[in-house]
Structures are given as structure tokens and as C-alpha cells.
Design brief:
The chain is mainly alpha-helical and 490 residues long. It has 17 helices and no strands.
């Protein structure tokens, strides 16, 4: 018997598109979170000044975002829907801008490194270009239009999470790739730029293909609004949408967890397990191997958790309950990791580090799909109360928080590096600062990536207790939205 052909939105093209369209955005975020600071301090030849520069650039970026992100969200929401869709075309442009800006940013001309002015202009311009590009990426808004069904959405989000993990976690192999390229180039600065091109170009092409495969659905149940856009619209939406208030308030805290863990990982592995505390020299071959091993280790729990999340949501009855379980796991294990560092066990035994990280990554992996489900539900709530999902503005608010968290996380790392007078040879990777400062630096890394995330997860648990949508409200809301959509043609 011939297998029944699946139709939209359960067909292969939609699932492949949902999974692959975010590859560039995820890879870019992973690369910027884990290596932007590392590149400027260790491979661009800037030393401690690189940490200061990164901190200043990230601060400027967040000031720009405070105006730019809400504005871009409103532009997306007020854009006319064409045959190509509304949010889909913004996702496509976002992918292209993000890819080009990252490639250029990480290929800083070596002749510029002697001029603080030229370096600052180069880094600031192309970081802001990357920032601008990512602000227009609205894949959750796009997926939200595909179907009103929680089952279909959960399936598409699982594809997105699994493919995103397959891309994000292997970015931990990026340093291994740099070391492999450097074996022939013998210049870590050049090797970093070459490796960026090798990784980013194919990922961007696949993301573009995935975006083209998704068919966009309805994002509104009322006529096109051509009135002037205003920042009042943005703040009015947040004021009226109680579920979104809880989602954003919790995200304000829990969103730091992944960025803090990811931003410190490369530094901690390098100096805890690959450096000679007497000479400051780094075993780059070992560093590349361990970075790759950690990437593989992270892939397993995050993928497993992503596939388990929809089952747990169905079993426990709501995304909120799964969120709380994931936050408890993450909080407890981050606290354990910090204590192990204080008693001297973590930095002397990489096996313990791997086991603890495995459990933390499982907790983090369990969080993603329920969190995205709540964001979509906040869009549904807008649709329910106003006739328009305002998905662009919801995505912009979420994106603004993510960027703020990434910037503050990197700034914390930069602060730690500046305190110890961090300076590294851009060709060999050896430590040029005060070697006695390394143990204290490792403790500070664990304070930032262990104790702080543990506290943040606990705060998020308390906030999620205020989430107002119950199963009864959810059923009423979906019925009302379905009735409104049935009256709209096209």
C-alpha cells in the first residue's frame, strides 16, 4: 500500500524549512556568544584592549537596540502581506545580512591592529550590521502563522530546536577547526578568519533554502493597518498582554543562563585544562580536542531534551510545568558546579566538569521548546484581544532581551579579563599577563557561569507561577481565534 502523502503544514518542506531557516541565526548567535570576546582578546592581536573594546561595542549596540529593535518589530508588523508573505521576507534578508556581517567582522585586516581608531570603526560598524540583521529575524512569528494547532507547532518547534542544536552545539568545534586550519597557515589571526568563511557560507545557503520552503499563514484577522507606527504601540501591547509580561519578565532572568555558560566555556577549558601555569603556554592541540569533545558532549543532552520536551508537555499537561522542571535541574547543577570549583575539584578533574556540564545542558535543552511555545501563546493572546498577533513586536521584545543578555554576559567576562590584565599572544595563544592571576580568574568564571545562573533560574521559577493562561482560558482563546480566521478570505 502506498504511503499517504502528507500535506501542508505536516509535509516535509514545511518541517525542513522550520528546522533549517534559523540555522544562520543560531550559528551566528553561538559564534558571537562564544568567540566574539575570544577573537578580540586572543586572535585579533588586541590583548586586554580587546576585552575593553568588546565591552564598549556591546554597550553601544544595546543603546541602539533600545530604539532599533522595537522600531524594526513595528515595521515588520505594519508591512504589507505579499505573495511571498510578511515575516518570511524579513527572515530572508536577515539571514543574508547576518552572514555577510559576521564574515567581515571576523576578518579584521591585520594592518588595522596597530590603529585603535580603525579597529574600533571596523568592529563597531560590522557588529551593528550583524545586530541590525538579527533584529529582522522573526522565525517564531512565521511559524506561529503556519497553524493554530499546539501539536503542529510543537512538531515544527522540535524540528527547529533539533536542527538548531545540530548547528549551535557543533560551533564548539569551531576552535578545533581554527587549530586544524592553523596547522597549514601558522597564524591564528588568519586561521580564524578563514574558518569563519568555511563555516558560515554553507550554513547561510541552507538557511536561505529553508526560508524559501515555508508557506506563511495568516498573522491577522483584521484589515491591513496603514496608520503611522508609534512606540506607544509597542508599550501598549506589553501593557495589555499579561501572558507576555510574564514571559518577558522570566526571560529577563533565565535568558542569561545559556549565554553565561556558553561565553565562559571556551575560556575555562583553555586555562583550566590546557595551560601551563608556570610558563603561560597553551597546548593548542589539546585545547582544540577538548573544545571539540565538549561540543559533542553538549549535543547529546540538548538533542535528547529537545525530543523529550513535546512528550513531557503532553504528559504534564502544560509547557509551564516542563519549564519549571528544566529550571530546577539547571539551577541545582549550576550551584553544584560552583561549589566543586570552590573546593578545588572542578579544575583538577575534567571528567567531573564533563558530567556536570552534561546535566546542565540537559536542563537547558529541556527549556527551549516550552519557552518558544509560551512566546507563540503570547502572540495568540494578542490575536485574541486585538485581532492582530503583533508577532513582529513580540519577536522584537524577545530579541532585545536576548541581545541585552548576550552583551551583559560578554561584559562580565570582559570585566574579569580586564581585572587580571588579560593578554595573549595572537599567534601562539600563550598567556602574557601575570600567571598568578589565572586561578582567581577561573574562580571568577565559575562565579559568573555557576552561582549567578543558579540564582537566576530560581527567580524565573517564581515569576512563571504568575502565568495567567489556564487550560480553560487556552481553549476559549483558540476557539475565538479559529472563529475569526474562518471569516477571513485568503
Amino acid at each position: 500500500m502506498a504511503r499517504e502523502k502528507k500535506v501542508y503544514p505536516n509535509n516535509f518542506a514545511t518541517k525542513f524549512g522550520a528546522g533549517s531557516m534559523a540555522m544562520m541565526n543560531v550559528a551566528g548567535a553561538a559564534l558571537m556568544t562564544s568567540t566574539f570576546m575570544l577573537y578580540l582578546t586572543d586572535y585579533a592581536g588586541l590583548g586586554a584592549w580587546g576585552a575593553s573594546l568588546a565591552t564598549v561595542v556591546l554597550l553601544i549596540g544595546r543603546i541602539v537596540d533600545a530604539v532599533n529593535d522595537p522600531l524594526q518589530g513595528m515595521i515588520m508588523d505594519r508591512a504589507k502581506t505579499t505573495k511571498f508573505g510578511k515575516y518570511r521576507r524579513f527572515c530572508l534578508n536577515s539571514t543574508i545580512i547576518t552572514a555577510l556581517s559576521i564574515i567581515i567582522l571576523f576578518n579584521l585586516p591585520k594592518s588595522f591592529t596597530g590603529s585603535p581608531v580603525l579597529v574600533t570603526i571596523w568592529v563597531l560598524v560590522f557588529y551593528l550590521a550583524y545586530d541590525f540583521g538579527t533584529s529582522f529575524f522573526a522565525n517564531i512569528a512565521l511559524i506561529q502563522t503556519v497553524s493554530d494547532s499546539d501539536v503542529v507547532r510543537s512538531s515544527l518547534l522540535t524540528w527547529a530546536r533539533v536542527v538548531g542544536t545540530v548547528i549551535a552545539v557543533p560551533m564548539s568545534f569551531f576552535i578545533s577547526s581554527v587549530m586544524a586550519v592553523n596547522a597549514g597557515v601558522n597564524d591564528l589571526h588568519k586561521s580564524f578568519g578563514i574558518t569563519t568563511i568555511i563555516w558560515i557560507l554553507p550554513i547561510a545557503i541552507i538557511s536561505i533554502l529553508g526560508t524559501l520552503l515555508i508557506k506563511e499563514g495568516k498573522s491577522s484577522v483584521k484589515e491591513q493597518d496603514d496608520s503611522k507606527i508609534s512606540f506607544k504601540d509597542f508599550f501598549r501591547m506589553i501593557k495589555q498582554n499579561k501572558p507576555l509580561q510574564v514571559v518577558l519578565s522570566a526571560a529577563l532572568f533565565v535568558g542569561f543562563v545559556w549565554t553565561l555558560l556558553f561565553a565562559t566555556g571556551s575560556y575555562y577549558i583553555k586555562w583550566a585544562y590546557c595551560a601551563d601555569f608556570v610558563t603561560g603556554e597553551v597546548d593548542n592541540a589539546k585545547y582544540g580536542m577538548l573544545a571539540g569533545m565538549m561540543g559533542l558532549m553538549q549535543l547529546i543532552p540538548i538533542l535528547g531534551a529537545a525530543m523529550l520536551s513535546p512528550f513531557l508537555i503532553k504528559k504534564l499537561g502544560s509547557a509551564i510545568k516542563v519549564l519549571k522542571v528544566s529550571l530546577v535541574i539547571t539551577s541545582v547543577m549550576c550551584l553544584v558546579m560552583y561549589i566543586l570549583q570552590l573546593v578545588g575539584l572542578l579544575q583538577t578533574n575534567i571528567t567531573i566538569y564533563v558530567i556536570v556540564q552534561f546535566l546542565i545542558q540537559f536542563g537547558v535543552g529541556l527549556l527551549n521548546i516550552p519557552a518558544m511555545s509560551l512566546s507563540m501563546e503570547a502572540m495568540d493572546y494578542n490575536l485574541y484581544i486585538s485581532g492582530d498577533s503583533k508577532s513582529g513586536m513580540v519577536a522584537a521584545a524577545t530579541r532585545l532581551l536576548e541581545k541585552l543578555q548576550g552583551a551583559l554576559s560578554a561584559s562580565l567576562i570582559g570585566f574579569v579579563l580586564v581585572i587580571v590584565g588579560y593578554s595573549v599572544d595572537s599567534k601562539t595563544g600563550a598567556f602574557l599577563g601575570d600567571l598568578s592571576a589565572i586561578p582567581g580568574m577561573l574562580n571568577n568564571f565559575m562565579l559568573v557561569s555557576g552561582l549567578v545562573p543558579a540564582v537566576l533560574c530560581f527567580i524565573a521559577i517564581l515569576i512563571y507561577r504568575k502565568y495567567p493562561i489556564t487550560n480553560e482560558v487556552r481553549a476559549e482563546m483558540k476557539a475565538a481565534i479559529a472563529a475569526k480566521k474562518s471569516t477571513i478570505k485568503g
